[in-house]
Each structure stands twice: as structure tokens, then as C-alpha cells.
Structures
1.
Amino acid sequence: MRKVYYNSIMAHLFLWVKGKSTATFFGFICTKRKKTDPLTVEDINHEAIHVEQYMEITAAAVILAILLSPWIGWSAWPFILALTLFYVIYFVEAGISWVWHYIHRQKASTAPMNQAYYNSMFEMEAYANEDNTGYIPARKSFHWLHYIGKV
Ligand SMILES: [Zn+2]
């Protein structure tokens, strides 16, 4: 089970959406909640799946940055991009999804922003498997790609 950072400054700074108290920041599970109000096993498993997603994308991007650097020149930006690539993919997909749901509006009761969140490939993998504590050890790398384009 991954470590949870309770009453986290990162969570307090960046989680301003109502009802959101917990997120994964650069591979660390951070929550606004206090230790006296702990996360459930499912919550922790959900965030731990995001940690796996973050680690594999970052590892692949760092390897790519190292391989490309002799050609493009050694500089910091490919490595900074590598550390943030998970969030770039996450928010680009959410933006595209938000526009798609805004145009289509299949479920009028659900706001396009919420639909974009629940239809994120990263969230779909995490929600589909958060109840299964044996999921992460058995998980195939980059399994979030399995959910790409599913809405
Ligand atoms: Zn999530």
C-alpha cells in the first residue's frame, strides 16, 4: 500500500474543485483530509493506480529524452516535459473530451466537465479497478491505453 500524505500543502494548493480532496502529484498521493479521517482502501488503490500510470509515462519519457538528447542537444526542457507529460496527456484528453461531451450532451443530468473526468482513460482504469487490491501487482503496463477513445 502506498504512503498517503495527509493534510498535504499540495492538495490544499491545487485541489480547488468542490468535492475533490485527494490527487496524485508527481507520483505522491496527497490529500486535504486529516489522518483522523483516513482514506478508504479503495481511495488509496485508486490513487495508487494513478501513481503507476504516472511512473510508467515518466519513465518512458525520460528514456526517450535521454535517447533523443544527443541529436537535439542536452537541455533541461525534455526532462521537465518528461516529468509533466502525464498531466499534459491527462488535461489534453480531458479538454478534447469536454468539447466532445459539450457538443453531444448525451446525459443532460451530467455536466460536460464531470463526463470528461469520468471518461478520462486514466480515471476509467482507476475507477474500474479501485475495488481490486490485487490489481496493481497483476496490472499490465500502460493498461490505460485500453480505455482510449471509450466514452
Ligand atoms: Zn482518479
2.
Amino acid sequence: MLKKIECFIQPFKLDAVKDALIDAGVEGISISEVQGFGRQRGYSEGEKPNKNVKFLPKIKLEIVVDEEILEMVTKQIVKLAATGKFGSGKIFVLPVEDAVRIRTKESGISAIT
Ligand SMILES: Nc1ncnc2c1ncn2[C@@H]1O[C@H](COP(=O)(O)OP(=O)(O)OP(=O)(O)O)[C@@H](O)[C@H]1O
Ligand SMILES: [Mg+2]
């Protein structure tokens, strides 16, 4: 079964997370620069929140994996993206119907390994 991880991390954590994911067996990653907020609405500790939210820069990673390595991959993200502070990020896991490697026409797990 294929699963998709969509996660949001602090930009300065990208290198460490990427290296750990390659070690965990991930064969492809897409990233984008996004802006977002979580439950602090973009305010850091000590700041006085007002009713406006602040969008902060984050990196979104999209990773489709065999569910066999899902737990290891999410554990590595949690370990390496952690900052000990608010805003370290969040991981979402989604089901994936299918995948196709266009060059070879392989589908399913063969398309991502
Ligand atoms: N429910 C959500 N839907 C979509 N994106 C989200 C959601 N929650 C968080 N994000 C994204 O994840 C980023 C990091 O979220 P963040 O780590 O601040 O979550 P949090 O729930 O506020 O946790 P914490 O209390 O540790 O800060 C946000 O900037 C946003 O881009
Ligand atoms: Mg937050």
C-alpha cells in the first residue's frame, strides 16, 4: 500500500530531514516553500497576539512511500525537525490510490522503489 506524507517543517531543518529520509529508504521527495500558521497563529512566545494571523515561512515536503517504511519515515521527521519550540511543524499521512512511473509504465509500489 502506498501512503503520502505531507509535512511542514522549519526551513533550516530541511537538510537534516532530507538526509535522514534518504537513509530511511525514501526514493523521491518534492518540496515547496509555503507560508502557514498553526495554533499560535504565527506568534512566538512572549509576543502579544492580536486578531491578525501571521503567515510564517515553512517548507512543505511531499513524500510517497511504501507503508512498510511509513513509521520509520515519520519517526525520523519527528526526530530531526524538532526544535523544542512552537512551530516545529506537522505531519499529515494520506492514502494513495496508485502511482505510475511514466518512463517504464510501472505502477503501484514498483513505481516508487
Ligand atoms: N491544520 C493544519 N492544516 C494545514 N496546515 C497546517 C495545519 N496545522 C499546521 N499546519 C502547517 O504546519 C506549520 C507548522 O505548524 P505548527 O508546528 O505551528 O503546528 P501547531 O499545531 O501550532 O504546533 P505547536 O503548538 O508545536 O506550534 C504551519 O505553519 C502550517 O504551515
Ligand atoms: Mg504552532
